[in-house]
Amino acid sequence: MAVLLNRFMAIGDETKEVHMRINRAVAATGLALCVAMSVSGCASDPKDSSGGSSGDSSNVTLTYWASQQGTSIDNDKEVLGPVLEAFTKKAGITVNLEVIGWTDLQTRIQTAVASGQGPDVVNIGNTWGVSLQATGAFLPFGDAEMEAIGGADKFVDAALKVGGAPGTDPGSVPLYGLAYGLYYNKQMFADAGLTPPTTWEDMVADAKALTDTSKGVYGMTIAAGSYRENAHLTFITSQQNGVELFDTASGKPTLAQDGVADGIMRYLDLMQTAKVVNPSDSQLDSASKAMPQFAKGQAAMTIQQSNADATFVANGMAAGSWGVVPLPAPEGAKSDVGSHVAGINLAVFANTKHKDQALQFVNWMTSSDIQAQLDKPFASLPVLVDGEATFTTDKEESATFLDIYRTKAAPLPLVPGEDQFEQAVGKAMNQMFASVATGSTVTKDDVMEALTTAEGTIH
Amino acid sequence: MSAQRITAQRRPRPRGWWVPYVIIAPAAIMELVIHVIPMVTGFVISLLNLTRYHIRDWSSAPFAGLANFITALNISTPIGQGVLHSFGLSLAYTVCVVTLAWTFGMVAATVLQRPFRGRALWRTLFLVPYALPMYAGVITWNFMLQRDSGLVNHVLVDQLGLMGDRPFWLIGDNAFLSLVIVAVWRNWPFAFLMLMAGLQSIPADVYEAAAIDGASSWQQWRRITLPMLAPVNRVLLLVMSLWVFNDFNTPFVLFGDGQPASGDLISFHIYNASFLTWDFGLGSAMSVTLLLVLLAASLIYMRATSPKENRHA
Amino acid sequence: MRDTRGMKILRVVALTVLGLFVAIPLYAMVTTAIKPLADVQSSFSWWPSRITFQPFVDMWKTVPLASYFKNSLIVASCATVASVVIAIFAAYAISRWRFRGREGFRTVVLSTQMFPGVLFLLPLFIIFVNIDRMFGITLVGTPGGLVLTYLTFSLPFSIWMLSGYFDGIPTELDQAAKVDGCGPMGTLFRVLLPTARPGVVAVAIYAFMTAWSEVLFASVMTTQDNRTLSVGLRQYSTMTNVYWNQVMAASLLVSVPIVVAFLALQKSFVAGLTSGAVK
């Protein structure tokens, strides 16, 4: 073996020849370069990007990438299956469904955009709306397209706006609505003689009263290790402080300002000074990982989006034993925003060969009957103006979420750099929570510095 | 007549000269399609301002010259600092992982060199981490390293009482340590496998002769084993270093969306720069820089470690 | 000859430490797989509060595991066979001929190991799409594309390793074969391959493992019908829950056949080396 290995390392023994070899490699590379250029040059083959459509809908098969909304991929297929069958029956168009987990969806979409080979219709997280619209890969919903899917005015206005930069035709339309709420454990609040908080200060006071570390019980649980959640909360708290993260006109970030830093400090201090959050929460890297603690009574409150119910039940919490209020703003806040306009949008790829059929499908998916049918299993809020919240039988909960979604939710910055903001600020906050959890102190100056750094990476 | 002369003047091709070309062709074509063209494409992209606005049609991407390289390497900006931080981190990671994996592999191969009862069993056990699907192994570690429900803290804090406060392993500065441990766990069996094969090829009589001369075990290892393994080590250390340096999967699976700064290895950093922020030009510039650095380092390494007789030959 | 006392002590210590290091995660995997979900979400215990095989039942429902396992097996096997065959010929050429382009080929092969793999992703995807457009060979979303990718991932190291093996086999054997009337292929199959069998096995193991473990490319290049295990296992961690016990049960189940096969093969690999076939 020794001899063998020695031999196959011979390449390095002939270092004198290296220069010559590199020259040759460069020549070979040049050749390959030509090939590569010609290959990449036809990445968007005009033949395929015809938006044209055949009048005959029969025998058309649409490919539809659905994001995973339910408890498992199979579960999603079961829910969507009948909806798609009914569509095929009605319109004679077959839909080839693929349910894709969130971890893979963004990369799949990117490769589809870059190569021009993708599905006809795709679900996207609506916070990517403007970012993806900027690629030009999605069919803009102009007047004609809007009409084909039943008119722009059927959608809740705030939800529709998320689909594109201001003043442009949206690249996607709302499909499922979601919103943040503050979930609280009714029993724990009743036992302590507390009422659900209406201000941030109340929330912290209640959380302090409910924290009993000797029993391992905390006032709140948050996904402090998830950069997405942290970025969303940065947005919400800075909205409450009346400041914007981006200058919408120029698309430039305006992160390094007091209002943003104060908002982050307010959220951070739940763990740092109020100590109402278990330091362990710093390693919860997705919102769902904070759910079991709440469900098991180890935390009295949690900040979650409206589709959390099923997981609470799955973790042994009885339906109806939790209540929801809007995530409160501090006393005298500039705004009572308690959520971003969260949810899932539906987009049509610009180079679909079946534009009309794809629009028919979008119309079907966003029709009031189908919306009513899907809202319950996917626990989503209605994106249609005439929609009713059906995701839970708890009237109070649905009314609260509907109110948050319609009156207390603001869209995340409608600029292409939004995803870079989530990355940069969210991860910086992961770090800050980690520091707090391991006993260090994070000051406002530290936050300011992190924001300045984050601003420098957004371009 | 004239035709004959021309043939005669040309250097005659030996019979079957085409054979190597034919049999290497499949490999060459594969390398060209799957490695060379993407690499060259990477070079091209690094010179383009290929962001989300142009990704659909690369020909529309403005030529950026060396701007991406300047952005990536200007350490007075946050982006450049990020690259530098990740590069340093990957370097430290590589040194730690390769050193430990090699040491473990060497120790295990040495103690298992001579037959004894149960040797096959140990050898089998040691190879299991390499045979496990990567995801399965790393996610098990993720589970063990959880602060409250993990095995590691259960042992260290609850059972041994070594630490008062439950430490975090997946966030903060400890994340680096965790990353190294997991990577060593996954990689050392490969070193073990290679070294074991290398040791098998050392004839037993060499050791016997040394033992008769009164050499201790340590001396035998130092004077015989190590030099005889030099060629194996030379390759092993190089390929392991390259793989570990470019490791993407371990942090990707171990940290999920947590992404602690102390686990931001260069591959992962490049992936984020390219895919999460849609700046493929910048990401490619980082990759190309990395390639050049590694190429230079590898050539220096091979030159420095090439057997002496060859160097003077 | 006998082992010295120091050697024996070293052996006991080293084997204990390394054995624990290797075995503890394996133990955690096995015991977690037979715990109820509530157990794995609270603090760690060495032994389940009650043993349940429910995770082994549930795991099929959460994720279509059987189909992923089949896909992985197909992809990894095809990639391994193709990689080994192609590498054998390429290594043979490099070891036994001095031809123009030989060094260039070797340099390129080496340098591919230095490029971060993630950056291949996008160009490769685009190349596959264009191969489809130009030649009508569908590579994206089919096992074929993944096989092609993986076989090329393992190719450089395989070629390196095998050409080393071939170099170690004296050329006198080739000459003897030539005298016996063997052509170049005859020499390869009758002389070199039988001698280099351990090397071939080693390369096959390496190629298989490379294909078996890859996550990133598999997540982009496959659709639900041909998704591979390494990607499939990630789906136990859904947006709404993390099924630790099912992840471990599934990991365990898919690992067992691979580990067994691997260990069976490594025996012949090491045996081949010790038999003196290789100096």
Explain this structure to me?
The complex is a heterotrimer of chains A (459), B (313) and C (279). By secondary structure, chain A is of the alpha/beta class. Chain A is 45% helix and 14% strand. Chain A has 19 helices and 13 strands. A five-stranded mixed β-sheet of chain A has the order 2-1-3-12-4. Chain A has a four-stranded mixed β-sheet with strand order 6-9-5-10. Chain A has a two-stranded antiparallel sheet with strand order 7-8. The N and C termini of chain A lie far apart (52 Å). With 313 residues, chain B is mostly helical. Chain B has a domain at 78-278: Orthogonal Bundle (MetI-like fold), CATH 1.10.3720. Helix content of chain B is 72%, strand content 0%. Chain B is built from 14 helices and no strands. Chain B starts with a helix and ends with a helix. Chain C is an all-alpha fold. Chain C has a domain at 64-235: MetI-like fold (Orthogonal Bundle). Chain C contains 13 helices and no strands. Chain C has helices at 5-33, 37-41, 54-62, 65-96, 102-111, 121-135, 143-167, 171-179, 184-195, 197-213, 216-221, 229-234, 244-277. In chain C, helix 1 packs antiparallel against helix 13 and helix 4 crosses helix 10 (197-213). The chains are: A alpha/beta (459), B mainly alpha (313), C mainly alpha (279). Chains A and B meet through helix 1, helix 2, helix 3, helix 5 and helix 18 of A and helix 2, helix 4, helix 8, helix 10 and helix 12 of B.
CATH topology of the domain at 78-278 in chain B: MetI-like fold
Query: How is the largest sheet of chain A built, in terms of strand order?
Result: 2-1-3-12-4
Number of strands of chain B: 0
User: Segments of chain B where pLDDT lies below 50 for 5+ residues?
Assistant: 1-8, 309-313
- Uncertain parts of chain A: 1-55
Intertermini distance of chain A: 52 Å
Radius of gyration of chain A, Cα only, in angstroms?
25 Å
CATH superfamily of the largest domain in chain A: Periplasmic binding protein-like II
Q: Largest interface, per-chain counts?
A: B-C, 94 and 100 residues
Helix/strand-derived category of chain A reads: alpha/beta
Annotated CATH architecture of the largest domain in chain A: 3-Layer(aba) Sandwich
What composes the largest sheet of chain A?
A: 5 strands, mixed
Give the number of helices of chain A: 19
Can you tell me the CATH architecture of the domain at 78-278 in chain B? Orthogonal Bundle
Count of helical regions of chain B: 14
Which oligomeric form is depicted?
heterotrimer
Q: What overall form of chain B do the CA principal axes indicate?
A: globular
Return the average pLDDT of chain B rounded to an integer: 84
